[in-house]
Design goal:
The protein is built from 9 helices and 9 strands. By secondary structure, the protein is an alpha/beta fold. The protein is globular.
């Protein structure tokens, strides 16, 4: 989890991870130089639960680079994503880990329920071949990603040239490498769409997404 000024949603997000039915995990959280009370909230949780390890960037470096730092610091063979303004269903880890281990998939994702509307997303695109859809849009929800560490390291982790739409780029790279995955039709994630990075920075997101679609490097 990478956090930037998420003080209003951070407690519920963290609690949703701590309340997982699967308990054996390390919870790595990067505070990306927040200017609100996020870091103090994180340190308070760290003092109460030994699974939590909090790190802090001395300057704001963005989500992409922060996630790569956390991947490097992780000591487990599986990695799950979580955003500081979203929540996970309490059975999410248990269900996704079962597919990764027993099904021998490289990564596992699920649908999500929008917190504000209670509607499930994606609505239809999850039904169609992902290699076809990803040429036009990202059919995966970033926060639901559960992936083998060796799989994400094999493709070079997140492309740090993509300050935005880093998830679209990641999934595109994964599919180009023909990795195996499981897409769960049930929603195991609760997605916030109010004042998040996608809604605030729509133009930037679209530019970087277009770079993924056209297989171009963004002009930094």
């Amino acid at each position: 989890m990478s956090v930037f000024n998420n003080e209003l949603s951070l407690k519920s997000s963290i609690e949703s991870v701590l309340n997982q039915s699967f308990k054996d995990f390390e919870f790595l959280i990067m505070d990306d130089c927040s200017t609100d009370n996020s870091y103090n909230i994180l340190k308070d949780y760290e003092s109460k639960d030994s699974r939590i390890k909090v790190f802090r960037n001395l300057e704001n470096i963005g989500l992409t680079k922060s996630l790569n730092v956390l991947i490097e610091k992780s000591e487990r063979s599986l990695i799950a994503r979580q955003d500081g303004d979203d929540q996970s269903h309490n059975l999410r880890f248990e269900k996704q880990i079962n597919y990764l281990i027993k099904g021998k998939y490289d990564f596992c994702v699920s649908r999500a329920k929008i917190i504000q509307t209670q509607k499930n997303i994606p609505k239809f695109s999850y039904l169609f071949p992902k290699k076809r859809i990803i040429k036009y849009k990202n059919p995966f929800i970033h926060g639901t990603l559960f992936i083998k560490k060796q799989t994400i390291e094999k493709i070079g982790c997140y492309d740090e040239n993509f300050y935005y739409s880093q998830d679209y780029k990641l999934f595109s790279d994964l599919l180009k490498n023909d990795v195996s995955f499981k897409y769960l039709k049930i929603p195991l994630y609760y997605l916030n769409i109010k004042d998040n990075i996608s809604s605030i920075n729509k133009d930037e997101q679209e530019y970087y997404a277009d770079c993924v679609r056209t297989n171009k490097q963004p002009n930094l």
